[in-house]
Amino acid sequence: MATQENIKSLSLYHYQSCPFCAATRKVIQQTGVEIEQRDVQRQPQHRAALIKGGGKPQVPCLLIEKENGKHLWLYESSDINHFLRGYAQQSAQSA
After folding, report:
1. How many domains is the chain built from?
2. Bond preceding residue 44 cis, omega within 30 of 0
3. How far apart are CA 32 and CA 13, in angstroms?
4. Residue 43 belongs to a domain with what CATH number?
5. Which of 34, 50, 52, 60 could form a disulfide with 21 if both were Cys (CB 3.0 to 4.6 A apart)?
6. Which of 56, 70, 74, 55 lies closest to 12 in space, CA to CA?
7. pLDDT tens digits for 15-58?
8. Domain coverage including residue 10
């Protein structure tokens, strides 16, 4: 798993009416993790980037950009939410 120290940025690919995306946005709000939100319906360039980088248009998808330039594409809301809770906990412990 990526650690807080080696993560450059986080971006969530989503759209507003998706219930799984809504659940993930709720976890983002609860944890306070800073994440750029990229709406694939309102911003077609984000949908194209999701397909090109992640290989499929499925949302939600969390893009984890690492300091070493690597990109990890995490699908499935339950996996994303688990990652975010762990990331937030790690952030709190290192503060």
Report:
1. 1
2. no
3. 17
4. 3.40.30.10
5. 60
6. 74
7. 999 999 999 999 999 999 999 999 999 999 999 999 999 999 99
8. 4-94
